[in-house]
């Protein structure tokens, strides 16, 4: 199955299973959450014309080149008096323009005379250094659409409009399962044939960044009865996310147990790393089974499970930003699967990590993102290739 088709199917499934409940949160709590409704400006921004500079405000038509008397001082946060005709006002950045003024000159272009009058040293023009009322936003304009993910910028924007709370989608509850007798949690001693469980840490912290509540279901041993029992104990979740144990190996007990109480389809994706991916449900709860090799887990979560999850929260644009960069490598062997090479950009060229094995997570730690090499293509040094930064996928 081509990557696009898998993504399309997952997004369609996500739209059928929206996590639609909402809650009202203070801005301080809303980081990483998804806006439930469009946000409309209840204010003009700025609410009144104000000065973009520290300087002097005047009415341009009143000025014929002569020095002007200063008749008031206007600080930010204070209400001005109307401007006395033929005079100017001392004004500071962000302070409201007095009625009658239509121009601000910055103090650097002025000279204060011994008698206190101000001489303007340069020519002046109408509306210079004035931020007009409503130049950013007008009352009633939509400033953010439903499904916007709230980061520092969006929260800052909501704050400029005076919103103290926002209505957001509730957090998805995601159960993370690791499978395999070989897995041991970091910090414990390794027995023969064992490896440390890295996928759990990777996924749990990634999901938390995506605003999920994680139900950490630990390690399932390769044993059917215990796998059944762990699944039965999960409680109420919106998604079961597993790694390993669902391909066609003899020890793939998770697949067996899931099939007994639901449905599970095995998709053979044209993606490398990460060919086997399963999708189905367990007692009605959607299940995504990611391949167990750490680099495969990373790529399939980032490119498929992440957009699926965000779409269930109503996020419209789930595609990561990607851009074209000249290759700093040769890729002579055309593949039948789409490859995501762990790569970094250096001196304007994108370079790939020497070992692209799906078991190697170090490649991704070295990298800043992935290069997408399309099926059948053989990019050469200097050819344009597509780069997707990890910063896009992780946030
Ligand atoms: P599986 O799909 O269970 O056959 O696993 C494929 C490969 O990924 C095997 O080499 C596993 O040891 C490895 N693997 C599976 N789960 C994890 C995990 N949670 N952390 C690190 N490696 C894993
Ligand atoms: Mg396994």
UniProtKB/TrEMBL annotation:
Catalyzes the insertion of molybdate into adenylated molybdopterin with the concomitant release of AMP. This is Molybdopterin molybdenumtransferase. Pathway: Cofactor biosynthesis; molybdopterin biosynthesis. It catalyses: adenylyl-molybdopterin + molybdate = Mo-molybdopterin + AMP + H(+). Keywords: Magnesium, Metal-binding, Molybdenum, Molybdenum cofactor biosynthesis, Transferase. Its cofactor is Mg(2+). Pfam families: MoCF_biosynth (PF00994), MoeA_C (PF03454), MoeA_N (PF03453). Its EC number is 2.10.1.1. It is an enzyme of class 2 (transferase). The gene is glp. Residues 175-311 form the MoaB/Mog domain. NCBIfam families: Glp_gephyrin, molyb_syn. Belongs to the MoeA family. The lineage of its organism: Bacteria, Pseudomonadati, Pseudomonadota, Gammaproteobacteria, Pseudomonadales.
